[in-house]
């Protein structure tokens, strides 16, 4: 008689690790992966790259962003190798020259994604294999204020529908296709609007970094119901900068305080009116903006795209990265 296979106790089932497409690493484990990559930035350069209210120093660059620059350098090399294999397969009928490696950087307002993007640009440009690294923010593809007002979208600024998504996707598609010169609109945080007649020119970079709230959003179906190609479909690698909602809100309010003391003082600033009221009145406006615009956008549109990223940087309350999740291949 064959003995039945004993069933595992419930505790054994509970202890079984949950399947995940990511490798989770502590900061120390990640830092060790930088190998012998030298630190090419000085403290002064890091200070210039740091966003207002963001807390970052050479230790953070050494522990978090140097390993990331090394990983991205490996990815770029592997992509070149894969392109060579494809050219061998296609032969003379369809061989292609090198096209830019595209990186997406996503995350909430005030989480520090702009600093991450600038650091990556500075670090990646130091590698001899890809010295031309361009950075473009999706702010330039926000609809002009007049258009937002006409569509009743002023209170939805930053939501996916407030962008010219078709133009943004076409811009990245043209760069990925290897066009010699591609231009984008320019956004000014001073006037809180697109700058009329001004264009950013991008000429065949080795690497393009695209930073913005909604860069990992999947494409919306067309009117005919067919799935379209989305912005993220052109990314070779993507980073999501993550933190707890309460920490992001605190960082947002702290940044607003500092802006009120600095950039908002400019007579041309759209927000100068908040320097002429009490700090509490100004902060009431900031809290309302967070509650009615930034928080809903984070919960409805930004955070749900986190699982589409290649790498997730998880920040603690002090703005420092504590853990990282890297997507398996």
UniProtKB/TrEMBL annotation:
GO terms for molecular function: ATP binding; pantothenate kinase activity. It catalyses: (R)-pantothenate + ATP = (R)-4'-phosphopantothenate + ADP + H(+). It comes from the Bacteria. Its EC number is 2.7.1.33. One of its GO terms (biological process) is coenzyme A biosynthetic process. PANTHER family: URIDINE KINASE. HAMAP family: Pantothen_kinase_1. NCBIfam families: panK_bact (TIGR00554). This is Pantothenate kinase. The lineage of its organism: Bacteria, Bacillati, Actinomycetota, Actinomycetes, Kitasatosporales.
